[in-house]
Design brief:
- This protein has about 450 residues and is α+β, with helices and mostly antiparallel strands.
- It folds into 2 domains: about 5-95, Beta Barrel (OB fold (Dihydrolipoamide Acetyltransferase, E2P)); about 125-425, 2-Layer Sandwich (BirA Bifunctional Protein, domain 2).
- It has helices spanning about 50-55, 55-60, 115-120, 120-125, 130-150, 190-200, 240-260, 260-265, 285-290, 305-320, 370-380, 390-395, 410-415, and strands at about 15-30, 35-40, 45-50, 70-80, 85-95, 155, 160-165, 185, 205-210, 225-235, 280, 325, 355, 360-365, 405-410.
- The protein has an 8-stranded mixed β-sheet with strand order 6-9-10-15-14-13-12-11. It has a 5-stranded antiparallel β-sheet with strand order 3-2-1-4-5. It has a two-stranded antiparallel ribbon with strand order 7-8.
- Helix 5 (about 130-150) crosses helix 7 (about 240-260).
- It binds one RNA strand of 76 nucleotides through strand 1, strand 2, strand 3, helix 3 and strand 10.
Length: about 450
RNA sequence: GCCCUGGUAGUGUAGUGGCCCAUCAUGUGGCCCUGUCGAGGCUGCGACCCGGGUUCAAAUCCCGGCCGGGGCGCCA
């Protein structure tokens, strides 16, 4: 007999035979009758054991440890004595894998566990339906994003994660000891995306891990994260990139709302889809708003973490907007991003922007400098040796279209979409400054 | 890296000098119970992060270490 899921039982006739399997969530033993609650990916079903009918086997069955994997062949019986409306009368029950006692982490216990305990026992933690729902929704979000990119004729690419140079300063690189010369884990696919613009791909995207060896210890940083990057050619300005980003967000969140209802209900979360186009706010205006809001500055007037949160609330209150772009980042704030194009009419401003979601940076992007001589000049300004970027720079010498793109933190997207306190909740097995296992 | 905060049964907690051979819940063992779905009743089990110090007395105070959680810098 073919195994079916808990949710399939509803379709069966009263008295029909079936095979089910899952994890024994709990046993309610009332003496002469007992109930086994069994969980599979789709939900829960209940098996009824009547002592008078099954005799000696009763004692063995009610003593199967919680979270053991069991397989049941039985008959569906409709009844109004249980909340599900039906239960399973067993013909045979097989223990496939017995769980040890006690569990390091209860799945349905009435006590919460600390994050550290949960992540040490992540495979158990993920058995909770609310945790699994996060990853069902993450999958749906990624599906929605890929759906958008396919529709827009993007090519999905894979670029190397072992690289010779970073896109940003060297301090945040994880070193790889193997090549006998400097080798690192990629912080970003930035340079490769651009090389593919030089190759004529015109529209590419990648969803892949990126690595940053920073001493970040916050609820929105991890050492390894999933980065979504796209890059497009023949743009007129960074407005084209923001427009594409705006459509991408709208499309993917719509997809989540349509396809993910069941899981959003489990998490009791409502996802709001922004209207295209997403509002833009130049960096200098952000400063003005923050001044009006009475922010106290320490040092340079820049949008810092506190500023981001204040602006997020401001935009929510005044425009009912969860998303907004901060545009025209000053060149002095983007100095290390040597490939950022600056405004022709005012070189103190870049074409770079961030996309903010619920008061947190989600996306960073802009138009890249595609003119070889200017690019070289910008590298010199920060004393970067062109020799370590030779293969990248060569791309610009033989025909490079105007282009630009973005990087989006997938884990942050999931975190903010589902209002999760910590980015680690959106990652199966997070890697941070101290966690390497499991 | 800096600042704040914490570490007590498998899990989550109470206790902040003697009232503690440590509270409660959950779990787990045993017993009772034929409709549980946060079942119920009776009963047992199980813990003060590590190392120094102060004190008549330390889970509690001090110092150092190790390990969490949060904030900031920074960033996706």
């Amino acid at each position: 007999m073919k195994r079916i899921h808990s949710t399939d039982v509803i379709e069966l006739q009263d008295g029909e035979k079936c095979k089910l399997a899952g994890w024994l969530q709990e046993t309610k033993n009332l003496g002469g009758i007992a109930f086994l609650k069994v969980r599979d990916r789709e939900g829960i079903f209940q098996v009824v054991l009547v002592k008078k009918e099954i005799g000696e086997a009763f004692d063995d069955l009610v003593n199967i440890p919680r979270e053991s994997v069991i397989e049941i062949e039985g008959k569906k019986q409709e009844t109004d004595q249980t909340t599900l409306g039906y239960e399973i009368i067993p013909i045979s029950i097989k223990v496939e894998s017995k769980a040890e006692k006690p569990l390091p982490l209860g799945i349905v216990d009435k006590v919460n566990a600390d994050m550290d305990t949960r992540f040490d026992n992540r495979f158990l933690d993920l058995r909770k339906k609310e945790k699994m729902a996060i990853f069902e929704l993450r999958h749906i979000l990624l599906e929605g994003l890929r759906d958008f990119f396919s529709q827009e004729k993007f090519i999905e690419i894979n670029t190397p994660k072992i690289v010779a140079a970073g896109a940003e300063g060297g301090a945040t690189l994880f070193e790889v000891d193997y090549y006998g010369e400097g080798a690192y884990l990629a912080q970003s696919p930035q340079l490769f995306k651009q090389m593919l613009m030089g190759a004529g791909f015109e529209r590419v995207y990648e969803i892949a891990p990126a690595y940053r060896a920073e001493d970040f210890d916050t609820v929105r940083h991890t050492s390894e994260f999933t980065s979504l990057d796209f890059e497009i050619s023949f743009i007129d300005s960074s407005d084209d990139i923001m427009s594409m980003t705006s459509y991408m967000i709208e499309h993917s969140l719509n997809y989540v709302v349509e396809e993910g209802e069941r899981y959003l209900d489990i998490l009791d979360v409502e996802v709001t889809v922004p209207e295209h186009p997403i509002r833009k706010l130049p960096h200098r205006e952000c400063i003005e708003i923050l001044d009006d809001l009475g922010k106290e500055w320490e040092g340079e007037k820049e949008v810092d973490t506190e500023g981001e949160k204040m602006l997020g609330e401001y935009m929510k209150e005044n425009y009912d907007a969860e998303f907004f772009f901060i545009t025209e980042f000053p060149t002095k704030m983007k100095q290390s991003t040597f490939y950022a194009m600056r405004k022709d009419y005012d070189p103190s401003l870049t074409t770079y922007f961030d996309l903010e979601y619920k008061g947190q940076e989600l996306v960073s992007g802009g138009q890249r400098e595609h003119r070889y001589d200017i690019l070289m000049k910008q590298m010199e300004e920060i004393d970067l040796a062109p020799s370590s970027f030779r293969s990248y720079l060569d791309t610009f010498k033989y025909g490079m279209p105007p282009h630009g793109g973005i990087g989006l933190g997938v884990d942050r997207f999931v975190q903010k979409m589902l209002d999760l306190d910590n980015i680690r909740e959106a990652i199966l097995f997070p890697r941070d400054t101290s966690r390497l296992k499991p």
